[in-house]
Structures are given as structure tokens and as C-alpha cells.
Automatic annotation (TrEMBL):
Protein name, entry field: Outer membrane protein beta-barrel domain-containing protein
Keywords: Signal
Highest taxon in the source lineage: Bacteria
Leader sequence segment: 1-24
Organism in which the protein naturally occurs: Sulfitobacter faviae
Gene3D superfamilies according to UniProt: Porin
């Protein structure tokens, strides 16, 4: 474990310790979502994802977010499980800071992901960004991404996102544009298009993909503060 991992874990722990002394625990939000994506030119390479998250508020300033997910890649029959924890400090009504840890298991290959994140809201805009260190049996890498969502009329929203993972063997990146709509007070459906790119061993492959899904949100804040962080959710299909 390197210095950046220790710092991220210590920050998450300090958030949790500070929160537990601040007051009673309250479920402030949560979500359950199902998604499907596939490469546009060959839909045999597809990906199903089931994600759930819950956020516990200890005070106005501190909260703890818990993530769980299962991802299945149809063509290769590979599956992935994920457990995550975010320690969150709400600086004010517009800005939230977080430190997170994710444990991800892909067919017995394990990854420990430590990082920091920030979220900001202003009028109809929502922004989110993160950076992390990925520790696996094969070596270390980095993971990071940014997202911006604009809330439109009639319950519609438009989101652009970019995520990238890299290590000594190569790079993987994902760019997507998503259109979503609130179909009820707690339910949101989405359709997205994007491009996934992989570079390894001098080979550069870029493929378009399509995706769709839905999410049910609950709690006072209608969902959680941050997205889940993991490697499998970046890959449209295998």
C-alpha cells in the first residue's frame, strides 16, 4: 500500500469517525439501478449491470455512502462484484468532498481502488470528478473521470462523461452522452451512446456503443451523493 492509498483510507476513516460523534444516523438517500450496454457493431459483446447504493447521514456535514454491484459480460461469461465505501463531507449546499475505497473482484482477480472525489451543483448544472489509485496482483494503475449533467425542462437531463484507466500494460477510456428522464417521482430512465477505446501492446481499438437502463431513487435527497467507482462499469461489453 502506497502513500496515496494510506492517505485516502485515512481520510475516509476520519470522516466516519467524525460523523459517528456528530449525532444520530439517518438514511438520507439511496438507489437501485439496472443497466445494459453493447457495442453498436456487434451486440453479442454486451454488459448487464445491477447497482445499489445507500447513504447514511450522521449530521448536516458528514455522511457515509455504501455501494454494491454485480456486472455480467454475456459473450465471455465473465462476472464482477463490487463493494464500495465513501466518506463524505458536505462543505455547503453546493459542494461535497469525498474519499472512497472500492473492492472489486473479477473472476477471482481482485482490485483495491482508493481515491478522492468532488461534487458541485449550481442552478441546473451538476458536476462530479474523481481520481484514484488501483492496486491489483498484476501491479498498480490509475483511474479517473469527470461528469457534467444539465437538467432540462419536463424532467429531462443531458449528461456528458469521460473515464480513463491506465497502467503499464495499456489504457482504457470511455466517453458517453446520456439522455435521461424522470418518469415518476422516484424513477429515472436513460439512453446513452458513446465510444470505448483500448490501447495495449501497440494496438489501438475504438468501438461505439449504446446503452439503456433505469434507476429507482429513495430517501430525502433522492439518491446518493456520488457515483460508484470501479473498472467493470467502464467496459460496455465483453
Amino acid at each position: 500500500m502506497n502513500f496515496s492509498q494510506i492517505s485516502s483510507l485515512a481520510l475516509a476513516a476520519s470522516f466516519a469517525m467524525g460523523a459517528t460523534t456528530a449525532g444520530a444516523v439517518e438514511v438520507t438517500g439511496g438507489s437501485v439501478g439496472l443497466s445494459y450496454s453493447a457495442f453498436a457493431e456487434d451486440t453479442d459483446f454486451s454488459h448487464w449491470g445491477l447497482e445499489g447504493a445507500m447513504e447514511l447521514g450522521f449530521s448536516r456535514d458528514f455522511s457515509l455512502q455504501i455501494d454494491a454491484a454485480y456486472h455480467d459480460f454475456d459473450f465471455t461469461d465473465i462476472d464482477s462484484t463490487l463493494l464500495g465505501l465513501h466518506g463524505i463531507y458536505h462543505l455547503n449546499d453546493a459542494t461535497s468532498l469525498g474519499a472512497f475505497y472500492t473492492f472489486e473482484d473479477v473472476e477471482g482477480a481482485e482490485a483495491d481502488i482508493f481515491g478522492i472525489e468532488v461534487g458541485y451543483e449550481v442552478q441546473e448544472w451538476e458536476f462530479e470528478g474523481y481520481i484514484a489509485n488501483v492496486d491489483t496482483d498484476l501491479g498498480d494503475g490509475t483511474l479517473g473521470g469527470i461528469k457534467a449533467r444539465y437538467e432540462m425542462q419536463e424532467g429531462f437531463g443531458l449528461t456528458g462523461s469521460y473515464d480513463v484507466a491506465d497502467d503499464d500494460t495499456g489504457d482504457l477510456s470511455r466517453f458517453a452522452i446520456r439522455l435521461d428522464r424522470d418518469v415518476s417521482v422516484n424513477t429515472n430512465l436513460f439512453l446513452e451512446v458513446g465510444s470505448a477505446k483500448a490501447e495495449a501492446g501497440g494496438v489501438d481499438i475504438s468501438e461505439p456503443f449504446v446503452g439503456l437502463g433505469g434507476e429507482i431513487n429513495f430517501g430525502a435527497d433522492r439518491g446518493t451523493t456520488f457515483d460508484q467507482r470501479g473498472l467493470a462499469r467502464l467496459i460496455p461489453g465483453l
